[in-house]
Design goal:
Layout: E1 3-6, E2 11-14, E3 18-27, E4 33-39, E5 44-45, E6 68-71, E7 74-76, E8 79-87, E9 91-93, E10 104-106, E11 111-120, H1 124-131, E12 135-142, E13 151-167, E14 174-181, E15 197-201
Antiparallel strand pairs: 1-2, 2-5, 3-4, 3-8, 6-7, 6-12, 8-11, 9-10, 11-14, 12-13, 13-14, 13-15
């Protein structure tokens, strides 16, 4: 990717950007948040003639409560919070290029750095997944409220649920479990293996 960083007074262009880390946070009482780290070539300043023109979007930010989950063998409506982190371990490849820029960027194998799920305790089935370190699917479908056109689906066909902890400190009982999405061939788009499959749907009628 080429990223333009524009603060209204200065515009910097960063080429060869690759996504190094994506951290997702979904809460029932907040917005879905994504923190993305990109690594690229050293930035260069653009002249004012090349500054971008702002173009907004009418698509609203998805709230956490509108996320639908599949886990522990079925659909779940008791999930309070979900955290996941993905990493590609992006690094610059050095080279005597005659400039301070590297030869190019390199992205490693996609891995999931783990995560955590917190939910209301509503029986022993979900808790038993963690006790037995059961490996099963975990899927989250994110969408703006009242908008079925724009959705994002994170599918983890093979996810290990580990280290369950019961929390009775509130008026209701909660439990948390560590997540470890594992590489598998189903979630890989074109051979190999991947710990996650990501699908985005918008109003564009053709693939791009």
């Amino acid at each position: 990717y080429t990223v333009l960083y524009f603060d209204g007074n200065d515009c910097q262009q960063i080429t060869w950007c690759m996504v190094d880390t994506i951290t997702l946070k979904m809460t029932a009482d907040g917005l879905v948040e994504a923190t993305v780290k990109l690594i690229g070539f050293p930035s260069t300043a653009l002249s004012s003639d090349d500054w971008p023109t702002y173009s907004g979007t009418a698509t609203t930010t998805p709230p956490g409560w509108n996320t639908t989950f599949t886990a522990f063998g079925g659909a779940q409506t008791n999930i309070i919070e979900l955290d996941l982190s993905y990493k590609r371990n992006v690094k610059p490849i050095p080279g005597m290029t005659g400039t301070t820029s590297p030869l190019q960027m390199w992205a490693g194998v996609l891995s999931c750095q783990g995560g955590k799920l917190t939910a209301t305790y509503q029986g022993s089935t979900a808790f038993a997944y963690g006790l037995a370190n059961t490996q099963g699917p975990l899927t989250a479908v994110v969408a703006p409220a009242g908008d079925s056109t724009h959705t994002q689906t994170f599918t983890h066909t093979l996810c290990a649920f580990k280290n369950p902890v019961i929390d009775p400190s509130k008026d209701w009982v909660e439990f948390s479990v560590d997540l470890n999405p594992l590489p598998n061939t189903t979630d890989a788009n074109s051979g190999g293996s991947s710990p996650v499959s990501y699908a985005a749907i918008n109003a564009v009628s053709t693939d791009y």
